[in-house]
Amino acid sequence: MRKKISTKQLTIGMFVELPVSWGKHPFLKNRFKIKDREQIRKIQDCNLTHILVDAALSDVAVPECAQTGPENGADEPLLDPKDQPVPERWNPETLAPVELLEALNDASMASDMKAKAVYQHSKTMLERLFESPSAENIVTSKKVIASITDLVLADDETSSNLLRITSHDFYTYTHSVNVGVTALLLAKSLFRHSDAHDLQELGAGFFLHDLGKVMVDPAVINKPGKLTDAEMAHMRIHPFQGFKILKQANALSDECRYIVLQHHEFHDGTGYPKRLRGNEIHRYARICCIADVFDALTSERSYKKAMKPFDALKLMQQQMSEHFDKKLFAEFVLLFK
């Protein structure tokens, strides 16, 4: 049952439906469960006085609409999409939350608190980047990701905490951070004693591997079920679109190119977009592929529950082993020992 309530009554756990078109608000979909106070702030910044909440899909009780009187907007209708202001686009100065930069530069912060701050605020940065993927914002995000990479490489305790706190929703920006962290940790275990690899560019490739999804119809990305053949074909444009976006931003290193273009290629040749197999797939992309599949399995979707890490690794080993480089997968499993 859907209820119309004041936006002042919104709380974490409510499942909301925005009465505006996708391009008129700063979220990746129109219907979603509120995860944090930042999302509430963004909804209120859209100048909506009221919003629809699905009580059946909410984790908290949904109150009746507050009767505050017409002068406070209680009796006003939901605004028409064409009347909504366009949300402020993010720019390089506001892309990275201050809290993220402070955590990265605070040598005295406890490792568990640092990991939590870096993880949560990295998600915010990636969310903003997906909202405003300008060339300047891409370059800025790569600089911040380079600092995150340096932290992961230098601080074993914080990087270990990062692995443990990954969340299980499947927003594109959450998935990007999860894959970025896990793939970077695998690269760290493989390459930390070698000077032959640019770990900062690897980190950028891992965190930005799905950037091309900004060119995919949100209805396809957020579809609660299996995609049709046409929808899957549309989804499969995102590796090349990501390549084009990074190239146009003059931010396409070799590492990013391999990862963005090939992270859906499988070792047995059944992946996409080019059905590469074995050593035709660059090692960096093979690393990202493993992290990508693992996060998809351990993330909750509207049509499936999240798998526990052990169960996901077991499934990958027993039912999907031909998809992955076996040596790399064995190293990946060791991250969770």
Question: What do these coordinates show?
Answer:
The protein has 337 residues and is mostly helical. The protein is 48% helix and 5% strand. It folds into 2 domains: 2-83, no CATH class; 98-334, Hypothetical protein af1432, CATH 1.10.3210. Strands 1-4-2-3 form a 4-stranded antiparallel β-sheet, with no helix packed on it. Helix 3 (111-131) packs across helix 6 (172-191) and helix 11 (254-262) packs across helix 12 (283-298). The termini are far apart.
Short description:
The chain is mainly α and 337 residues long. The protein folds into 2 domains: 2-83, no CATH class; 98-334, Hypothetical protein af1432 (Orthogonal Bundle).
Shape: globular
**What's the CATH class of the largest domain, please?**
Mainly Alpha
Can you give the mean pLDDT?
87
**Strands in their spatial order, largest beta sheet:** 1-4-2-3
Q: What is the total number of structural domains? A: 2
Structural class: mainly alpha
Secondary-structure element order, N to C: EEEHEHHHHHHHHHHHHH
Strand content: under 5%
Quickly give the CATH architecture of the largest domain.
Orthogonal Bundle
User: Which residue ranges are poorly predicted, with pLDDT under 50 across at least 5 consecutive positions?
Assistant: 66-88
> Biggest β-sheet, characterized?
4 strands, antiparallel
Classify the helix fraction into a percent range.
40-55%
Number of helical elements: 14
CATH topology of the largest domain: Hypothetical protein af1432
Q: Rg from C-alpha positions?
A: 21 Å
CATH superfamily of the largest domain: Hypothetical protein af1432
Termini separation comes to 44 Å
Number of strands: 4
